[in-house]
Amino acid sequence: MKKPTVGIFKFTSDAGCQLQILNLEKELLELLKLIDIAYFPMASRNYGKGPFDIGFVEGAVTSTEEIIKIKEIREQCRILVALGSCACYGGIASIKNHKPQRELEERVYTDLTAVHSTKAYGIDQYVKVDAYVKGCPIDKNEFVEVVKSTLMEIKPNLRPHSVCVECKLREYPCIFLTEGKVCMGPVTSAGCGALCPSKHRACEGCRGPASDPNTSSLARTMMEYGLTPEEVRLKFIKYAGETQAFKEGAGVR
Ligand code: SF4
Ligand code: SF4
Predict the structure, then answer these.
(1) pLDDT tens digit sequence for 99-119
(2) Is residue 186 within 6 Å of ligand 1 at its C-beta?
């Protein structure tokens, strides 16, 4: 039987999520028994042509060229998956959306004639997306989960709850309460195993909003812990400032 074909595409990003796929090493060899990765420029010079059964897209859409390209890729892929926070929400690149576009371009480029930047958005701003693998970078096990469930045509078992739940399940002490480290865990989507709190670092919200998060309440609590409204805003716009939930947190004064 012919194996499903997979394409892995890069938009504006640092390639960290694609690197996580390569980091799978042994599991990747197992996966290759089930799928044919036909297009993966970071790993191979053999550029296979579509159509593809599954397309994974890393990176935010940040230019007119990329808007055209993501629409072409959507047409070539039966199932399209956003890979990582840039593709899901715009990610780090979307911080620029909160400054005048021209001012930033002038700061970076001396000649603006070939610059066609747009605001940075996740790919679902332009095309329909069938599944999301969150994180900056992605969790490689979640990638495997999404590939397997896609092959079985079932919904992936991704966690809708917050990072705080993972902290509790692993019995980590809450560093917000015990160390006063202002943490985005209460409103951030689980799946990383509370990685940062496990190292005594506050969650920075890299996986974007959990389901039904109370971002306004967290923003007010952050201020009670001494953050200025501007510092709170910067926390909420770091990875997923274009989502409605994090916009609300960023707007609290
Ligand atoms: S450390 Fe952060 S993620 Fe963990 S329980 Fe406390 S607030 Fe939640
Ligand atoms: S704890 Fe927060 S910032 Fe750290 S990896 Fe998890 S979601 Fe990302």
Answers:
(1) 998 898 899 899 998 888 999
(2) yes
